[in-house]
Amino acid sequence: MKKWTEIIIHTLFWLCTAWLIASSFSIQSHEIEVVNDIEKVKIVRNNGLTYQLLICILFSLIAFYINSWLIVKSNRTGNINNLIWYALVTFVILIALVYAVTEIRFLSNMPPIPKQIAFGVSTFYFSLSIAYALIKNSIYNNQRNQQLIIDKKHAELSLLRNQLQPHFLFNALNNLLSMVKTSENPQLINAIDKLSHLLRFVIEDNRAEKIPISKEIEFLKNYIELQMLRFEEGEINVEFNVKGENTEQKIEPGLFIPFVENAFKYGTEPEKTSKIDIQFNLSKGDAIQFEIKNKTMMMNKNSIGTGIETTQKRLDLIYHDKHKLKISNGDEFIVQLIIFIQ
Q1: pLDDT for the residue numbered 283
Q2: 4-23 in b/e burial notation, b at 16+ Cβ within 10 A?
Q3: For residue 285, which of 241, 246, 324, 252 has the smallest C-alpha distance?
Q4: Which of 93, 133, 169, 240 could connect to 71 by a Cys-Cys bridge, CB 3.0–4.6 Å?
Q5: Which of 319, 241, 255 is nearest to 283 (CA)?
Q6: What average pLDDT score do residues 119-132 get?
Q7: Are 252 and 210 in contact (CB under 8 A)?
Q8: DSSP 202-231
Q9: Which residues are CB-neighbours of 13 under 8 A, at least 6 positions away?
Q10: Domain locations in the chain as residue ranges
């Protein structure tokens, strides 16, 4: 309904303004007639001027929607730097077309339309297209920010609802850990300790708005070590490398774990050899580069998991124009993610 309302408003706008401009600027002369001692003013319009004005309005209509579409698209894709160039090129092309209309004589007896009128009409419509696109961008940005706030509140509420259970498990694990003798089962001690660290991350660190990337990496390593307990020795090889020293960059928590979960879920299979390659590049102080590769061992009917889809939405909301995500799904499942830190 909203879309049809907008279409109707736009149609009425163009019809009304086109009629007003064509009727106002196509007047050739005023003739005064005296009938029965009563003066009547007769307006004489030039059809040639009307046709030229309508052609100028048609070019302006096309430029209006091309320019507004480019501005809206630049805002939503984060390509703001090219916005001015897009608008400038569109305006120059429009002016060139309008200038051609003022120079070309379609009929020998057709007077040329004054250039100041033709350029004035096209500039008027082009200015409106910029204003229209900026208003749409403002509405879109406000809605996006409101959605981000709503999603964050929902996440906080979900965390509060589930807080009791992780706290209980965390305390229970610590109690069990104190009951196990280190010398008798060191592997069990290590596994409980890793699980305890995972729960601590969920309960404490994950509640922060931003955490250092070093804590996120530590969380991933603990998760991987627990996953490795499911496999026999030599069945799975996990390469986890961190390059660079900028480990204190702040990041939204929990963005990378869905990709690692996906790798273990679809890139491993019992009694078969598999490999997962995880790379972090922290060489730059204003960017975090992440890559994970795994051979596709088990098919995923949904192409990518729900966790990855949720992460994509989080990235779009939180790092809208400050991230690049590329997912290749073939013989190898490859995820390449770059997050630009402000």
Answers
A1: 94
A2: eeeeeeeeeebeebbeebbe
A3: 246
A4: 133
A5: 241
A6: 90
A7: yes
A8: HHTGGGSS-EEHHHHHHHHHHHHHHHHTTS
A9: none
A10: 2-143, 232-340
Residue 106 phi/psi, 5-degree rounding, is -75, -35
What is the average pLDDT score of the chain? 79
CATH 3.60.140.10 fits 232-340, yes or no: no
274-281 and 211-212 strand pairing? unpaired
Q: Give the chain's length.
A: 342
Work out the number of other CB atoms within 10 angstroms of the CB of residue 102.
Answer: 16
pLDDT at position 202, please? Answer: 66
pLDDT of 26 strictly over 60:
yes
In whole angstroms, what is the distance from residue 107 CA to residue 48 CA?
A: 8
Query: What are the pLDDT digits (tens) for 289-338?
Result: 999 999 886 665 455 667 788 888 888 888 888 999 999 887 889 999 99
Which residues make Cβ contacts (< 8 Å) with residue 63, sequence separation at least 6?
A: 90, 91, 93, 94, 122, 125, 126, 129
The SS3 of residue 62 is helix
Query: Residue 169: pLDDT above 70?
Result: no
